[in-house]
Amino acid sequence: MHSDQGWHYQHNKWLKTIKENKIFQSMSRKGNCIDNSPVENFFGLLKQEMYHGEELCSFEDLKKMIEAYIEYYNTKRIKQKLAGMSPVQYRIHTSQLAA
């Protein structure tokens, strides 16, 4: 789990909870908001494009929805910054150019 260095992510109860659940925590460098920008952008898009104000669902349903969105984001969702390709298409395209 990646986060900024907000106090709530450093709180002992939070740290104990993530350790008990075998979750690895990484943090942005102090005073460098650019580190967190790509993650914040992705989660903003996920909430806008996937959530649509739907009622709460079970953890399992939410997990499936997020996994499906990540698959869509990586393989089908085109980005103008990636020459109109999905991230996977762009990686394949650039690796072919380098070969």
Automatic annotation (TrEMBL):
Pfam families: rve_2
PROSITE patterns registered for this protein in UniProt: INTEGRASE
Gene Ontology terms for molecular function: nucleic acid binding
Protein origin, superkingdom: Bacteria
Integrase catalytic domain location: 1-95
Biological process (GO), any one: DNA integration
SUPFAM superfamilies in the cross-refs: Ribonuclease H-like
Name of the protein described by the UniProt record: Integrase catalytic domain-containing protein
Lineage of origin: Bacteria, Bacillati, Bacillota, Bacilli, Bacillales
